[in-house]
Write a structure and sequence with these properties.
The structure is a single chain. The protein has helices at about 15, 20, 25-45, 65-70, 85-90, 130-140, 155-165, 180-190, 205-210, 215-225, 230-235; strands at about 50-55, 75-80, 95-100, 115-120, 140-145, 195-200, 235-245. By secondary structure, the protein is of the alpha/beta class. It has one domain: 3-Layer(aba) Sandwich (Rossmann fold). Strands 3-2-1-4-5-7-6 form a 7-stranded mixed β-sheet. Helix 6 links the parallel strand 4 (about 115-120) and strand 5. The longest helix has 19 residues, at about 25-45.
Length: about 250
Amino acid sequence: MNPGGPTLREDADLVTAGEAYAQRFAGPVGRHFLAVQTAAVLGLLAPWPGASVLDVGGGHAQTALPLAAAGYKITVAGSSPECGQRLARLLEPGSYDFQAVDLMNLPFPARAFDVVLSLRMLTHVADLPGYLAQLCRAADKAVVVDYPAKRGFNLAAGALFRAKESLDDNPHTRPFRSFWDQEVLELFRAQGFGRPRLRRQHFLPMALHRGLGWGGFTRASEGLCRALGLTVLLGSPVVLRVERLA
């Protein structure tokens, strides 16, 4: 945060919108991660088929592509024109709208979109309360975000990040902030949003799966953990939906 001073522009999406970052989700392990994420997002958006969705920081195209294919009306907001380049390569012209904007001062009317979505952002933004306030202002019905949860292996996030650097040779591996579920929910509650629905994605660390690079192990181990109830109790990252209360 920046008390008493101007709000700084947020550009955490520059890294995630790049092709180098996209390589983190290449191969069978990466495709599994994206399939789990897509299923979670589509499930949480199911009450509003065909809704208008603002995807903030969505230049990675991980959500814009499947949501456009499912018939949602997608607008992607990025911090610079560069954040629209991957979208332009992957999506059909006319299937979405991209706007380069100040993510901390979204230029949209209040409640302009049915749903506001933001993945890969909360863990990196500098002013989280200010960022969430922008998402909530633009949403008429709901906000969907993801974040690393302080559960399971993420309770040892510092040590795990050092291990992650050794396992994951992608140069865009970045330190990340994990959250207790309650601290995120309280920030949304302050904006008038509640009725949370959570989808926990993986039990074992994603870096472990990437380091092994064996899609069969990822599918089998995560399927077993989900069947045993470990994922719903201790899984991370979380995809969270909160709804406007009034």
